[in-house]
Specification:
Helix content is 52%, strand content 0%. The protein is mainly alpha-helical and 131 residues long. The chain has one domain.
Amino acid sequence: MMPVASGLQPDSNPELYVSSVLMLYVDLPDTPFRASNPDYRLARSWFERRVPASLVETALLLAALRRLTRPHDLPPLPRIRSLAYFQPVVDELLETPLRAGYLEHLRVKFRGLNDRAESNRVPKTTISDDR
């Protein structure tokens, strides 16, 4: 998974910002195979509101980690159907920013947990389960 905040500067380029956010989103567990038009519009609105790409990456990883570390004795959560699922976490981080360096901590933790979960996960498909 390519970090959104690395390499080029997505915060100054709307196409790069949106594509980086959407690529990270669809790479997360339990998300759709590809982003929808509403997902694109939400990512674009975050760019227009000047939400830093690193904050969006932090929000997506934090929410994904919350799902991955959920107690196993609870019923499984439904799949994530929209980027809007992450909006409350983006808002949370805008209101209460995390300390510097926390994004890297989340990346490392996510890689470790996601690698373990990969073996139990059903692969993504282009076939929708809501037909």
